[in-house]
Amino acid sequence: IPGHQPLKDMHLYSAQEFNNAILSDIGTSGNITSVYIMASICIFILLIACINFINLTTAKAFQRAGEVGVRKSLGASRSVLIRQFLGESLLITLIAVILSVVFVEFTLPIFNAITQKNLSINLQNIGFIALMLVIISAVTGVISGSYPAFFLSAFQPARVLKEKHIGGSSSAWLRKSLVVFQFVVSISLISSILIIQKQIKFVQNVPLGFNPEFKITIPIQTGEAKVGYQNLKNRFKQLAGVSEVSGSSAFPATPTVRNLPLYRDGATAESAVSHYWISIDENYFGMLGINLLQGRQLNITTDTAGFLVPFTRIVVNEASLKENNIEPEKALGTKLHVDLNGQHLTFEIVGVVQDFHQFSMHKNVSPMMFIMPIPRMMDYSALCVAISAANFDETLADLKKIWKELMPNSIFEYAVLTDSIKQQYDADQRVFAIIAVFTTIAIVLSCLGLYGLSVFTAETKIKEIGIRKVFGANVSQIVGILSFDFIKLVVIAIVIAIPVGYYAMNTWLENFAYKIDVDATIFLLAGFMSVGIAGLTLGFEAAFRNPVDSIRNE
């Protein structure tokens, strides 16, 4: 049904389904895109671990060549060897699962602190977790152990007993392909961190259209506070450290659940544009530093109105003019209409303010209408107090004292406006922190995979490396010799990672109405970072080997 959504989908899907509607601004919602990203990263990290097992097993295959030859010579069939090697893989996976459960139990408080969740292993979920761990460990063991099992069991006994080792050239293409995959994941994750960090910095530095500095908001929620609102406001204004006080039904960074579909003269209700409806007082725009572009501000003596009053004067923002196709120079005096509960209401525009961000950068600036309620209506949900920077703490203490004096039965609560604005991006900060942790894990695992590749490369060039070191080659020269094939793999990975990472990050950036441009430079930087990190690993096994051990006869 258009405009409706199942209740069970509101937490994860409301932001996508109702981008400009009321429901997307009620409470703290999740984001299904972030869930997909996190799940994909977990799968990729598990695949990297499987790839490492395959690479390390096949790269070190020569160490088990003699064992395979002896067992085959004594009559062991290939199926027996396959079962043995698969069994070893499953056993290793089972041990890893047990260790991972212990690790999760110890690190879960840290994860909960990062994600602002309260996850735990308890009697309600232990059965499901155990079942999933069994399935995951079985699938992981089979995936990581299948190729090594078939590869090792295929060794010819006569050859391995004679040569003592297997060069593994037949599996080189697969090993290199897996290393490329590892680098694609690592580069994509590093680029994701860079992009997310850049986007968060971008949205936190975009001009908001108002000044939030040194302002606190105080909720007016109890009946006692609503009755004593005007007296409280007057007492606050008398403080030397207070420059201005204003009331509103929804200050910036505060969700609003009220909107009206307005249409201009000559149009019909079918073409109505939804406007957020915010009640303000005379000091609202001045206190927040919102620019008045045309006309005047609302006046408490001439422009106040109650609920469902047939005619009311309002101030709108630039987005309202744009969405209603009203020419700016003709805005003043223009009538906007709404048909509500069988009653026709008319609003006259007496002022236009510059667009400002009532909500986060996840949303475009929406059409807004500002109305001044009659004093007895008390349509304000909060006070905003502008405090001088020099006496911020002292003035805050004075505000609390006055509140307790006038509102003895109501709890004093406040929020710093700049903090409220930053909290709009808490979920994005958590995504950044989680991806940063996952990226670190992926890089460590990828380096282990590179270690396996360097071991294999060193074994195939063992005598060459020994001779070069005897003739004075240093570590950097040896690493350079071994890096040629590696650099080719990294270049291939960068080429693949650019479109993959670009698509993934553009999908995440779709959550923002205001976003950075993603270019290839970020992915190239991520590629160079991967090369630098992996370069510390590459050649370690070969470059630091004793040259005497490398060139002596067996």
Provide a descriptive summary of the structure in words.
By secondary structure, the chain is an alpha+beta fold. It is 55% helix and 12% strand. It contains 19 helices and twelve strands. The protein has helices at 10-17, 32-59, 62-73, 78-115, 126-153, 157-163, 172-205, 223-227, 229-237, 284-288, 318-323, 392-406, 417-423, 426-460, 462-470, 475-509, 520-535, 540-543, 547-551; strands spanning 215-219, 242-248, 259-264, 273-279, 292-295, 304-305, 311-317, 335-340, 343-353, 368-373, 382-387, 415-416. It has a six-stranded mixed β-barrel. Strands 2-11-1-12 form a four-stranded antiparallel beta sheet. Helix 3 crosses helix 6. 35% of the residues are buried.
Unreliable parts = 16-27
The major beta sheet can be summarized as:
6 strands, mixed, barrel
Percentage beta strand: 5-15%
Q: What is the end-to-end distance?
A: 78 Å
In terms of structural class, how would the helical and strand content be classed?
alpha+beta
Provide the helix percentage.
55-70%
* Strand neighbour order, sheet with most strands: 3-4-10-7-9-8
The mean pLDDT is 81
How many E strands?
12
Count of alpha/pi helices:
19
Radius of gyration: 33 Å
Could you say which overall geometry the principal axes of the C-alpha atoms support?
elongated
In brief, what are we looking at here?
The protein is α+β, with helices and mostly antiparallel strands and 554 residues long. The protein is built from 19 helices and twelve strands.
